[in-house]
UniProtKB/TrEMBL annotation:
A GO cellular-component term linked to this record: plasma membrane
SUPFAM superfamilies xref list: P-loop containing nucleoside triphosphate hydrolases (SSF52540)
Domain ABC transporter intervals: 80-322
Comp. bias (Low complexity): 368-380
Family statement: Belongs to the ABC transporter superfamily. ABCG family. Eye pigment precursor importer (TC 3.A.1.204) subfamily.
Localization in the cell: Membrane
Stated name of the protein: Protein white
Organism: Homarus americanus
Gene this chain is encoded by: w-L1
Molecular function GO terms recorded: ABC-type transporter activity; ATP binding; ATP hydrolysis activity
Amino acid sequence: MAQVLSDLLRIKSVYYSGNVYTPQSTMKPKMLEKVDESKSPSTSTSNTSLIMVNDPDPIIYSWSNVNVFFRRKAKTSRFLGRGNSTDTTPRVIHILKNVKGICRPGELLAIMGASGAGKTTLLNVLTHRNNDKLRVTGDISINGIRVDPEAITSRSAYVQQDNLFIGSLTVREQLTFQAMLRMDRYLSYEERVRRVNQVIMELGLTKCENTLIGVPGTKKSISGGEMKRLSFGCEVLTNPSLMFCDEPTSGLDSFMAQNVIAMMKSMAERGKTIISTIHQPSSDIYSMFDRLLLMAEGRVAFLGTTDEALKFFNNLNLRCPEQYNPSDFFIDQLSVEPSKVMESRHKIAMICDNYDASDHGITDQRKQQQQTTTTTKKNTSPYKASWGTQFRVVLWRSWLEVLRDPFLIRIRFLQLVTLALLVGLLYRDQQMDELGVFNINGALMLLLTNMTYQNCNTVVNTFCSQKELFKREHHNGMYRVDVYFLAKNLVETPFFTVYAIIYTTIIYFLIGLNPSLERFLLCAMVAVMVTWCAVSFGYLLSCLAPSDNVALALLAPCTLPLLIFSGFFINVRSTPVFMKTFQYLSWFSYGNELLVVNQWSGVNNLTCTVSASCYLDGEAVIQRLGFSEDHFAFNLTCLALLIVGYRLLAFLFLLLGTNRGKPRS
């Protein structure tokens, strides 16, 4: 703890003198370089940088004795002639082994290692993400104090490798959305907009600020470099003291990769604490790092400056050749060659053991033990915006997303009208005889099935397609689960309601159903309620399924039993007792009875042409199907309960699937 206080006093004294603390020296603060694709990172400058101000809250981030274990479940296998053979001993995989490290304000720390070395796992542990399936032990502290994960979330930023955005938003709209939810709530709207303008200017996003972000693989509007800069822009809006970056140069060309690292270097020179994983950087990029954390086989192979790393390997008779990229050399030495597995692992163990026993490794370990206390700093809430602000902003984004979706607005409207005209013309001008009764009942059933499958197919990917984006934003403390779920529901409901009314209106008058205005309005109301039930069930599948393909695969087998017990394929009085559950959960059953009763109740002008299948009046039609007029209010109530019930289940599954999962220790 004394070491931490000494470091903090040193940092504060440097800030008061107008400089920024770095581990090697104190240097004058530099302006963040504006990214201009016509200039190199070394020559690009900005006269008035307002993004990277001197950090008023410097962070010394440290971790020691971090161990990560993954418990693999026991496997059961069947061998011919041997019956069942069960492995009753679970396998425990030791992923990280006594990993320690520290990053101070003004430092850009690079975590390097070969594939499988544990870089991403360590970064997940440091950011308290994706730890729910792992057992994590060790101490992680800010300024010598162990902190709660929520405290880290509120004071840090995480630029992840995958760029996840809503493709139908523009660059400015994305930054505005982030600013409204992640910046301090006491700031006014004008201050947030001013901050967004500053970020756009400083990161060189001016020319694409009103361009749609686009969807990779389908439609693309901004370039990969612009998307990576947008990722950084979303994180630097809040001027975080601590920043994590996961492979920030992946997918970028050498020039753009150098621009990104130059941006991170400039941020570090402003007093930020920046930790980044990176895989085999170029020589120019390597020279920008202040310190290295080399990892191999889940262990620390070295922690120190770039010059100290070369000296350490030289002392082990592992010399980096002249004019050779040091990062490539380190990766080669710490990789497991497939043809020399045992020799490679022996060399890696030798390097790690020598570092642990070296003066450098022992000194780092003592500093870690001195500066970590058992006090835990907690944060009351990870959310910087109130519930009302969260709801308003998420609703605004969802509304833009729906309005700019051509499938939901234009294509689906044309599809709906075309199908309604086809059904209406097919059943046009039905006569009030036994054939007309059969055809009209079939048309009513088509109304239910069309309202179900069209709407279910539309919404079945609503939540699972954005699950990763939602988890990331929720974990960053931007909005609550109920805010996101409610906004999605409210934005899409008007469109589905209007579509149901349009479809019902077209087929109702083309077929020539009951001409009473009251009966038409009741039919439209039932169609809307059935649509809402179908949408609710689609939401449930979307929240339950891990991916779009799984959700679509579940749609048919889950809705088919509900369709069978609609009363059209089997009389409701013939339903076996043990299968009544499907009938109770089927909106087809309630909707079909409501539509049939609404159509035939009070109808007395039926004519008979074939005596064997003749209906005397509408009451006979209703009774023949096993329905009753007395169930009208009950069926409406059940439809309302299904709408609410399926959506509540969907919300619970969404909530369970996005559990924040605090790390275990």
